[in-house]
Amino acid sequence: MMADLHRLVAEITAEMSAAAVRGRVADYIPELAKVSPDHFGMVVITADGREVAGGDADMDFSIQSISKLFSLVEALSRDADAVWARVGREPSGSAFNSIVQLEAEGGRPRNPFINAGAIAVTDLVAAGEDSRAGIGAILRLVRDLAGDDSIASDGAVAYSEAATGHRNAALAHFMKAHGTIDGPVDTTLSTYFHQCAIAMSCRQLARAGRFLMNGGIDPATGHCIVSPERARRIAALMLSCGHYDASGEFAFQVGLPAKSGVGGGILAIAPGRASIAVWSPGLSPQGNSLLGTAALERLAHGMGWSVFNPDC
Ligand code: GLN
């Protein structure tokens, strides 16, 4: 199995590195527009602790919306009832930054992985604290999961997003008007922009996802990060909502719970089998990594990894 995995990762890396059609790098956050679309990296960590890497596996990128997974874990561990009182658990079928659905539904975001839902979740983490405590807590969690204290938020990316994040500001103010968020909008948004700006490599990200392949227990430390039930439920949300209005297509093509970000990263989980991180900055029109998705499709089919596969 390991020989197959090594060969497959090498084949996928060669294919993706040479691909002519690579998608469009996000340019609505000016700092992200500077990243070359030529990068491709992937890391697969298996349940027995082996790491198989390809391409730019150790190059940092902006994790963007993948951070919504970590802020959700942090908020759930503080007060799960408060999370579900303010956000739903339904796929949105809308763009990640849609405003119209939020208004039509009375200021209650459909799920924690669209921007509105993530801002509402982050508000719980930032609540009542000074402006740096929330991002400090999210960073502590990510560093602990990855086993790497060097992980940090990139100030230039956070500034770039804060300077241009008018849609996110609109979503946050609208939710404040509806009582969906409690804290000062500026503090909540600053925390959200800094969490999106966390820079990680595929290797660090795949390590940070290990607890989800392992029923909520971090195999590196033996620490219980979330209960087995919560790990299953987070995976259910990743599968149904992790790729916004392309979540159904991703489930159809890949069949694994996964969370994407507009930096071009995707963290995917094959429960009981592997934690997988891929990165290629060019995006599909829905804002998901084009080659990252293609790589996961090849890997999942090649290894027979799918939550819908009875043998997986
Ligand atoms: N920081 C980005 C935003 O709020 C995150 C979006 C994403 O990765 N899909 O627009």
SSE diagram, text form:
Layout: H1 2-18, E1 24-25, E2 41-46, E3 51-55, E4 61-62, H2 67-86, H3 100-104, H4 115-126, H5 133-146, E5 152-153, H6 155-164, H7 166-178, H8 185-196, E6 198-200, H9 202-208, H10 210-213, H11 228-241, H12 247-253, E7 258-260, E8 265-270, E9 274-279, E10 282-283, H13 290-303
Antiparallel strand pairs: 1-10, 2-3, 2-9, 4-6, 5-6, 7-8, 8-9
The structure holds glutamine (GLN).
Detailed description of the structure:
The protein is α+β, with helices and mostly antiparallel strands. It folds into two domains: 2-61 and 201-303, 3-Layer(aba) Sandwich (Beta-lactamase); 65-198, DD-peptidase/beta-lactamase superfamily (Beta-lactamase), CATH 3.40.710. It has 13 helices and ten strands. The protein has helices at 2-18, 67-86, 100-104, 115-126, 133-146, 155-164, 166-178, 185-196, 202-208, 210-213, 228-241, 247-253, 290-303, and strands at residues 24-25, 41-46, 51-55, 61-62, 152-153, 198-200, 258-260, 265-270, 274-279, 282-283. Helix 1 runs antiparallel to helix 13 and helix 6 crosses helix 8. The radius of gyration is 18 Å and the shape is globular. The model has no long low-confidence stretch (mean pLDDT 96). It binds glutamine (GLN). The site of glutamine has 11 residues, from loops.
